């Protein structure tokens, strides 16, 4: 019988290997950046990090399959274990030396999120979770915040920088959340934003357009830490390209109400 903690351990090894490589890499010259889509960059560092992750995961769990942002973004594999990988979440931050980027690895087993790891590269700390086993930061249990009063809340967000057509919808949401809380932060790595919700640093988080590899590991972290994650429509299946709303139960409910009214 498969042990989800073994999947976590395998993901941790792969993430640590990629994080070490990224830390040792200098951001390439801007002339070497490739723009996949508007405002969305990729470099040889991303691709090499994903290759290292793939090698480690497939060796650790033979017969598993990979869906990775850089090398296999369109893959729809059929396997008992499917890994969802973002080798460098926050590439633009990395390119500019802004210290907020991570390696994100999740495992889907039998159709459900089973394991998740987010390795904060610059701080060299590791968030991890296994289904029905809790969430952890460097081995210590973490929980979502206890804030229930929106004016006390700190909320994370992500701008729709790749989907500028969503700005007209997003900006009124941003204004409403700013007015209703103690602050809104946008640091540029959804994986770390969700990890911060799980650790109680953010009370909630939302973004209108994300991919499965941006959120898969972070979603499990938040849920195992006692939080709620859905799409803006309230769907629990967030492993699609689309919106995400996460938070402790009270702040998730409040944020859903604010966003849905606009």
Outline of this structure?
The chain is an alpha+beta fold and 262 residues long.
Give the low-pLDDT segments: none
Distance between the termini: 47 Å
What are the secondary-structure elements, in order, as H or E?
HEEHEEHEEEEEEHEHEHEEH
If classified by CATH, what would the architecture of the largest domain be?
A: 2-Layer Sandwich
Number of strands: 14
CATH superfamily of the largest domain: Fructose-1,6-Bisphosphatase, subunit A, domain 1
Coarse shape: globular
Spatial strand arrangement across the major sheet? 3-4-5-6-7-8-9
- Overall tally of domains: 2
Mean pLDDT: 94
Radius of gyration: 17 Å
Counted by DSSP, the helix tally is: 7
Q: How is the secondary structure organized here?
A:
Layout (H helix, E strand, L loop, with lengths): L3 H21 L9 E4 L2 E3 L1 H17 L4 E4 L12 E9 L1 H6 L5 E8 L2 E9 L4 E6 L4 E3 L2 E3 L11 E4 L9 H14 L2 E3 L4 H9 L5 E7 L1 H13 L3 E3 L11 E6 L1 H12 L2
Parallel strand pairs: 3-4, 10-11, 10-12
Antiparallel strand pairs: 1-2, 4-5, 5-6, 6-7, 7-8, 8-9, 12-14, 13-14
Helix pairs in contact: 1-2, 5-6
Q: Could you characterize the architecture of this molecule?
A:
- There is one protein chain.
- By secondary structure, the chain is an alpha+beta fold.
- The protein folds into 2 domains: 4-142, Fructose-1,6-Bisphosphatase, Chain A, domain 1, CATH 3.30.540; 150-260, D-Maltodextrin-Binding Protein, domain 2.
- The chain contains 7 helices and 14 strands.
- The chain has helices spanning 4-24, 44-60, 91-96, 167-180, 190-198, 212-224, 249-260, and strands spanning 34-37, 40-42, 65-68, 81-89, 102-109, 112-120, 125-130, 135-137, 140-142, 154-157, 183-185, 204-210, 228-230, 242-247.
- The strands form 3 sheets. The chain has a 7-stranded mixed β-sheet with strand order 3-4-5-6-7-8-9, sandwiched between helices. Strands 11-10-12-14-13 form a 5-stranded mixed β-sheet, with helices on both faces.
- Helix 1 runs antiparallel to helix 2 (44-60).
- It is globular and about 50 Å long.
- It starts with a helix and ends with a helix.
- The mean pLDDT is 94.
